[in-house]
Amino acid sequence: MNAAFFPLDEQLGIRDPHTSEAVSKLVVWLSGLLPFEQVEIVLAKVGQIHCSRNSAWRRAKHWGEAARQAEAQAQTRASQVDTRGGIVAGEALQNDRLGASLDGFLIHLREEGWKEVKAGSIFRIELNATEDQQTHEFLDVGRAVENSYVAHLGGPEVFGEKLWSEAKRRQWATAVETQVVADGAVWIWNLVADHFYDSVQIVDWYHAKSHLAHAAQLLYGEATPGMQRWLTVQATHLFQGQAEGIAQTLREVARQQKAQESELLTEAGYFETHKRRMEYLDRRMEGWILGSGMVESAAKQYQARFKGPGMRWSRSGAERLLPVRTAILSHRFDEIWQRIYNPPLN
């Protein structure tokens, strides 16, 4: 056996790198990581395997479709579970808190233009003792660990079902407490109302502060001393859970700023709508996560494969490769491969 295969052997569980299954598994795995022309180069240089980019695409398309079907079957099984008492087969829950986060990113489809892929993350919340830089007190600060992901090219309803299925696979119903953290997009909180309505809800702190910064810019101009002073004061109020007061302030000053009145009222509405999701100080004291960086990072990792220079996807091509990329990001590629290559007998 060529020594160059040893690192891939260990990661992919390949015993004989020249069997049909081993080659297919390696090609599909690499296709989820790299553009197809790079897959061809890596296979030739590292594994001495000749596989053209077209052949790599055909294998990725075939097994990606199998992964997509397996994903749909798992979703169907999950939908039949009574979450009030049932447990979907999956890893054992190791913590009493689970969380979810949602976001979207764009890819370019041939004949359609830029389209949004919706991505979601389910994670375990781990508490770490962290020193507050201002008070020097140690607080239990939550962070996301053991992330798993779902992605969907299409509307929010199907995506919501996919994310909820993954939550059930992660044994969401057995968690003592749960949270959802995301930006302020309407479609996100509509899905939360449908599936995660009893979870603690938090608007990502950095998105909320960016809306506050926009309001400060409207009032005082960009990067002016007045803008910075106003933003510093209001950001403190926001962190202390005074979103409703900020909304009232913006409504009052909007009357005096006719040129910016419409935009200021829009920002006021944002803080009014999400005020119950902006109790940041209390939520941090309770150990909840205030930022949606886990799913924003996932979106960037999806984009790294789907949004390279000159990339244009067919809808079917993107839909077939998304489950492969998802399995890799979720550290479940071996599990998914075993399921699709050796399906259980009916």
Please summarize what this structure is.
The chain has 346 residues and is an alpha/beta fold. The chain has helices at 6-12, 20-31, 36-47, 53-79, 156-169, 186-195, 205-220, 225-239, 243-254, 261-273, 280-285, 293-306, 315-329, 333-341, and strands spanning 97-109, 113-131, 138-153, 177-182, 200-203.
Uncertain runs are: 1-12, 84-95
What is the total domain count? Answer: 3
Largest sheet: 5 strands, mixed
Strand order of the largest sheet: 3-2-1-4-5
Shape: globular
Q: Kindly estimate the percentage of residues that lie in beta strands according to DSSP.
A: 15-25%
Name of the CATH architecture of the largest domain: 2-Layer Sandwich
Helix tally? 14
Give the proportion of residues in helices: 40-55%
CATH class of the largest domain: Alpha Beta
Instruction: Tell me the number of strands.
Output: 5
Q: Please provide the ordered H/E string of secondary-structure elements.
A: HHHHEEEHEHEHHHHHHHH
Task: Report how far the terminal alpha carbons are from each other.
Answer: 36 Å
CATH fold annotation of the largest domain = Nucleotidyltransferase, domain 5
Mean pLDDT: 89
Kindly provide the radius of gyration, computed on alpha-carbon positions and rounded to a whole number of angstroms: 23 Å
Secondary-structure-based class equals: alpha/beta
What oligomeric arrangement do these chains adopt? single chain
